[in-house]
Predict the structure.
Amino acid sequence: MTGSILIVDDEEKLRNLLKRLVGLEGFFVLEASDLQQAKKILEKDEIDVVLCDVKLPDGSGVDFIKNIKLTHPLVEIILLTAYGNIRDGVQAMKNGAFDYITKGDDNDKIIPLLHRALEKVQLQKRVQQLEKQVPQPYRFEDILGESSLIKTAIELAKKVAPTDAIVLLLGETGTGKEVFAQAIHNGSKRTNKLFLALNCSAFTKELLESEIFGHKAGAFTGATKDKRGLIEEANNGTLFLDEIGEMPIELQSKLLRVLETNEFIKVGDTKTTKVNVRIIAATNRDLKKEVDEGRFREDLFYRLNVFAIILPPLRERRKDVPVFAKYFMKLFSHALNNRIKSMSEEFTEHLQNHEWKGNLRELKNIIERACILESSPELTVSSLPLELQTNSLLAIHGSSFDLATAEKLHIQKVLTHTKGNKTEAAKLLNIGLTTLYRKMDEYEIRK
């Protein structure tokens, strides 16, 4: 497996040692002594994995993870530190690190970690390519789900699609609001026109105003030429405004004018521009509460709330979890040359007992991770993150004080730590190898 690795460390001797160690594995290696140099390399070269020290002369490797993930989301980062700081490790994982290891103590883990990180990068790249090749299934008949809640939402969306009515999609993050918006567009008479989407939470007030409404040259510093906003680009089509609850209240009056008069004024302009655009908005906030607390205009709320559709969270449609899990499994298995063929019943049971606070996005990430880690043709409970295994088991068995549950969880935890090495796991558990196999058989643990 070939790939490009960037080593970021201010200790030259250690950097050279790592470069030799990694280079002998056939990786292409680049190196940087600080964060500024690392940023320049990332901008210029295609990097797969970054091995980065935590303490650097010009900043923290923990904070650097966020910057990398923002500009290079497919790059994986492994942090190196001379100090085993648990708080830094937790924050690093929250920021998006692939893993976090201690220098010297974990040197034997670096190469296996690099291979695993690179496998994930290559899978993500392949999935991205496949998604570009295959048209996204944004028709109503392609929306998955058998629960009554999702069927109700689909029926409402089908009825409103042929009209020009404003639609407000309500639901938690990751419930598929943009998929519904595109299905509504594709089911309308505007289907052959543009569908444009904008996340209102991703911009500052000034940038958001320019993105939506456009600007005239000279309207502000850096505005060297006229720019058409998305509302004009989507003329005769549909504009989807995601996270509408995040729109600054100063811009809400401009949007209200569009909804009432079909006209707006660009930033820095003096005359109005007419448009014929359908607005679909979405939010995970309680807009009525936002109105009561003065953060959202009441008149805009009632204008948007003409036809509201509630998209249920995944925990309220648990019977749909296996449907989505199988869909995502096939997607990622295809990217892995159809290596994964099925999911065990226990695996599915654990998925259905999880709370899914991140909804479909969280489920998709979990299945992607499982497909990468599982070497057999079947996804099993041991393919799941330990936290999900633990929470699901407690939900299934009902008590954290149950001895058998605790023992099963502990054995799974040790096997995960040893990466499935049963001899090493038996030593750490201080039991015989035969006993370990008997308990694995008893608890149906597959590793």
About this structure: Residues 107-133 form the longest helix (27 residues). The chain has three domains: 4-133, 140-312, 315-442.
